[in-house]
Design goal:
homodimer; 340 residues; alpha/beta; five-stranded mixed β-sheet; 11 strands
Chain lengths: 340, 340
């Protein structure tokens, strides 16, 4: 295996493109030798950002893509019509094997559509779930699927559990990760039809550490490491996590500004509060892989700054070095082919 | 209409029964004349609590119920076999018209099952949703359904929107409440099959102020007043709200204890922080009505204390005085009968 991971980065995606995106790529190549970054976007705009910086020239190159898919565009139409967009050009680099991974902070829907239609699913994988990380009071948890496929079937959720376990163990480093299915009670007989049908399949699935149902209340308390659900529910969990978290932090900040007394308190308490909120925000801003593709696509938060892009590039290196797609192939699609 | 609302209260339900439950009933009758409370439970245990207190004797009576449905019992079995439980006896009081409403902090599943099977749905109502309140940074929002019926159909969600609007307007006092459907994007074409089918029905439904889709992230920011979804998703929203909120509050408390400096800050800031968290916790501890029944059943949080019970009794008075079931009958089931 080569010692360099080739990562394409969507230089035009997200609220802070291209400045912060390019800066993230620069920070990555300035801190590690094992990565080669392809900045995909409008050549002049990207070059203007690079010109300001010091960096090892042999580790970064620009791939011109004159079109941009905007945040509010219709995903399917955008992917179909904007062939010269940074998103489509970057995904084609993955498809053609020119790079190992593609990172974008752009239009979420377009990332999901492009991942499935341009990069494509691995042979034998039925669905490619989006697997973001959420913070818990014990660390982090992986939730999948969070947006790629609505109306999933039980066999898809089993694949999610398998792929999520592999990612959590080999990329995040959680040994023998506990897998749970989101449910509205802890007993096996509870839940909707999808959960009832999926539960015994997960219980009988070899190679995963299935611990049963998890109620949404227990997710922030670290009740499981890999949390499986269909995409609609996953999306609700992810968005509400962020919504409630931000609201609570704003409530704290507002409370500290209400009186002279509280303002004095804030002077003393703020450093500790900021420090304690930091892991929470960082987890929500960690790149989310789209698993089960012919390559790797990572979606980062629309408001990504340089640090998120740099970290996502690191995730791509680990993903390739740990041979995640090789393990998925061996354990999931290989096993299925033997059965067939 | 009579000027007294008759409310049965499950004296044995919840983590703090019977002490806090009886105290809540006492606080209610000591503060208002327009309510008559029936404390349903083990006669001796309830009498022992009453004996300690001063209260207008004509406003409280005990209804003996020697059995108790425990928090962890199987709901359907419990309702079927424990005919002398406080839950079943209390619900039968509603069914027989002996009281206007029943309040319980006990086994959630049993409240839902008992509400539907003992009290029963109003003629013409297809599903009876559980409608709890969640806090937002602009006030509160009503979410329904949060647990009563999994695998709902589009016409059920339309009923939820109608009943939720009536409750929000006449019990909570929000004029022309904004109704939204939980979705994974704001555009009409997004979502799973249920949302896609329900969206046009809500848009064309007269008498509600439908504003479109709401992403979970916008719920804590007060994006809508009445939030419609199927029960599995609603349950996830409610539980995660509580889970993330509690985790964040714990994070703040822990942060304030990390150093001498932060402890000094806490001394000054804590009163303001407590005050700002209070509405958040209060909203999550407000009683949730099961709407569309022949009478009213209110579920309060399992950890309810006297204040929650007292407030829930107040909700029952408003519910009856505002003739909510009369309005539901006139606007929803009446209209349907004319169509048929």
């Amino acid at each position: 295996m080569e010692t360099v991971t080739r990562v394409a980065v969507d230089a035009m995606g997200g609220d802070n493109a291209p400045g912060e995106i390019v800066k993230g790529a620069l920070d990555a190549v300035n801190s590690r030798k094992d990565v080669h970054v392809f900045l995909v976007g409008k050549k002049d705009a990207v070059a203007a950002e690079l010109d300001k910086a010091q960096y090892p020239k042999e580790q970064i190159e620009i791939v011109d893509a004159p079109e941009v898919i905007e945040m509010a565009e219709h995903p399917v139409n955008a992917i179909r019509t904007k062939k010269q967009s940074s998103m489509v050009v970057g995904m084609n680099l993955v498809k053609n094997g020119d790079v190992d991974a593609f990172i974008s902070a752009g239009n979420s829907g377009a990332i999901l559509v492009g991942g499935q239609t341009i990069v494509g699913r691995m042979h034998g994988i039925k669905r490619a779930p989006l697997a973001p990380i959420v913070p818990t009071d014990k660390g982090i948890a992986l939730i999948l699927d969070c947006g790629a496929n609505v109306d999933a079937r039980p066999e898809h959720l089993v694949e999610f559990a398998q792929m999520g376990s592999i990612y959590m163990e080999y990329v995040i480093g959680v040994k023998n990760p506990r897998v749970a299915i989101v449910n509205i009670g802890e007993e096996e007989e509870k839940g909707n039809e999808l959960v009832k049908e999926t539960f015994p399949l997960l219980r009988d699935c070899p190679g995963i550490n299935f611990t049963g149902s998890i109620e949404a209340r227990e997710i922030p308390h670290g009740g499981a490491d890999v949390i499986v659900c269909e995409a609609f529910v996953g999306n609700v969990i992810l968005k509400l996590y962020e919504g409630v978290g931000v609201t609570m932090m704003d409530t704290v900040k507002d409370a500290l500004m209400t009186s002279l007394r509280s303002k004095i308190g804030a002077l003393f308490a703020m450093p500790a509060l900021r420090k304690s909120f930091k892991p929470y925000l960082e987890a929500l801003h960690t790149g989310a892989p789209l698993l089960g593709l012919n390559g790797l696509v990572v979606k980062t938060h629309g408001s990504s700054k340089a640090i998120e892009i740099k970290n996502a590039i690191g995730q791509c290196v680990t993903f390739r070095e740990e041979n995640i797609n090789g393990i998925i192939k061996e354990r999931i699609t290989g096993a299925q082919q033997e059965e067939a």
